[in-house]
Amino acid sequence: MSGDRRGPFVVAHRGASEEKKEHTLAAYDLALREGADGLECDVRLTRDGHIVCVHDRRVDRTSTGTGIVSELDYETLKGFDYGDGAEPADLLTLADLISLVLDWNSKPTKLFIETKHPVRYGSLIESKVLAELHRFGIAQPASADHSRAVIMSFAPTAVWRVRRSAPMLPTVLLGDTSHYLGGGAATTVGATAVGPSIKSLREHPSIVDRAAASGRATYCWTVDEKADVELCRELGVGWIATNNPGRTKAWLE
Ligand code: G3P
Ligand code: CA
């Protein structure tokens, strides 16, 4: 999962979520058409074990419904509208998104899947996600660089579980700088890449070189300012997640 010397690859954070409602087919479709190199999504389990793309613990902010994702069945969640009022949208599943990425023939866009709350779900969410990747034939890539899927988490345990079950899949350990400054958890759990926020990167620009020294790429989120895009390019960040992939691609040209 290496970067590119010409500049970071661009990942659409929750789709092209500045222009379309987050985690909707419309947001991801637009991101692909804008030339995104990767698509980021957050996944949660419904009460009956379906993997859905929802960021928050509850659906209240992003849908017409109310309630906690893990306490509602798929059919109930599917009954809510996830659009922006003008444009209705269906609940998106991980399977929908994998299909979209694999059907996109312009380039081998990667899917960055962030598992939410692995502590609450135990190992269930990682094993369900891996089963889905197996079902689509993308759980055992020839190399991390060629993988169509990347698994990410703020929880070192989650990354460790994925490394143990699917060693060829690239992983990103997100979050706290203590994970990767001073040889922390990213090394212990064998994450392929470190994932600082842009705020952490501004405060600790040496993260990128330190990660590279141990063979790791850097994935930085959420990079929406031009100056930050430039900073990432100068530092050699491999991947940047942005809410506006079209504008970010244009800045990098
Ligand atoms: O891409 C990582 C980033 O999405 C982590 O933060 O809250 O947007 O999931 P959050
Ligand atoms: Ca996320």
Automatic annotation (TrEMBL):
Family matches, as InterPro entries:
GP_PDE_dom, PLC-like_Pdiesterase_TIM-brl
Q: Where is the GP-PDE domain?
A: 8-252
Source organism superkingdom: Bacteria
- What is the designated name of this protein? Glycerophosphodiester phosphodiesterase family protein
- Organism this protein belongs to: Rhodococcus sovatensis
